[in-house]
């Protein structure tokens, strides 16, 4: 571990005493895991403490761990945030698990970083994570009438309806799928010209 990461680890341990569930090194970056109850306060301290100075939220995404490992016994949904400190030139990965697998709920970070707005909307749209306190939590990539969350591991790969824009109705409409399912089994095709050559070599 580099001297800079050693310093960051020491500062995190001091500033977040009692609120760290795990602090590990992976791919030359520290990963911090905190409980859902401490998530908002930890993120605020990461931003406001001069010793840490994480003034930028550069990414946030949701993760579905339901098929992560065969013996996985942890919570299903997590949110992972990536923070950057320009003042100290260091980064931090923060992970928090939602307590309820059926209704994943976590505090919104929009009051701390404006950039969290669209990131949280994306996690809500694609994984169904609800961010309490978000002032405009609505779908951002799928249609507003879309049913389900496409990045969940149990979301069906083949659907029964498709959507299109209807010019006469002036809106998006749903209709039965018109595309014929394609065959996914591999086919082996043998070039007959090469096959004849192979035969000549065998008998020549």
Task: Give your account of this protein's structure.
The chain has 204 residues and is an alpha/beta fold. The protein has one domain (3-147): 2-Layer Sandwich (Beta Polymerase, domain 2). 23% of the residues lie in helices and 27% in strands. It has a five-stranded mixed beta sheet with strand order 1-2-5-4-3. The mean pLDDT is 89.
Task: Offer a concise description of the structure.
With 204 residues, the chain is an alpha/beta fold.
What is the first-to-last residue Cα distance?
66 Å
Q: How do the SSEs run, as a string of H and E?
A: HEEHEEEEHEEEH
Overall geometry comes to globular
For CATH, the homologous superfamily is named as: NADH:ubiquinone oxidoreductase Nqo5 subunit
Tally of contiguous helical segments = 4
Mean pLDDT: 89
Total strands: the figure is: 9
Q: From the 3D coordinates, which CATH architecture would you assign?
A: 2-Layer Sandwich
Low-confidence stretches: none
Described by strand count, sense and barrel closure, the largest sheet is: 5 strands, mixed
- Structural class designation: alpha/beta
Strand content: 25-35%
The helix content is: 10-25%
Q: What name is given to the CATH topology?
A: Beta Polymerase, domain 2
């Amino acid at each position: 571990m580099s001297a800079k990461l050693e310093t960051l680890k020491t500062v995190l341990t001091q500033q977040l005493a009692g609120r760290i569930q795990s602090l590990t090194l992976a791919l030359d970056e520290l990963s911090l895991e905190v409980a859902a109850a401490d998530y908002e306060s930890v993120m605020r301290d990461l931003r406001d403490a001069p010793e840490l100075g994480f003034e930028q939220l550069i990414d946030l995404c949701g993760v579905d761990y339901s098929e992560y490992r065969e013996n996985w016994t942890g919570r299903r949904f997590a949110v992972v945030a990536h923070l950057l400190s320009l003042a100290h030139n260091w980064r931090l990965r923060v992970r928090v698990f939602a307590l309820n697998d059926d209704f994943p709920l976590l505090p919104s970070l929009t009051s701390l970083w404006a950039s969290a707005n669209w990131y949280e909307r994306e996690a809500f749209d694609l994984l169904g994570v609800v961010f309490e306190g978000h002032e405009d939590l609505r779908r951002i990539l799928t249609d507003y009438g879309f049913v389900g969350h496409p990045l969940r591991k149990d979301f069906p790969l083949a659907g029964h309806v498709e959507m299109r824009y209807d010019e006469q109705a002036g809106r998006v409409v749903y209709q039965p799928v018109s595309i014929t399912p394609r065959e996914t089994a591999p086919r082996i095709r043998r070039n007959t010209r090469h096959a004849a050559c192979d035969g000549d070599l065998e008998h020549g």
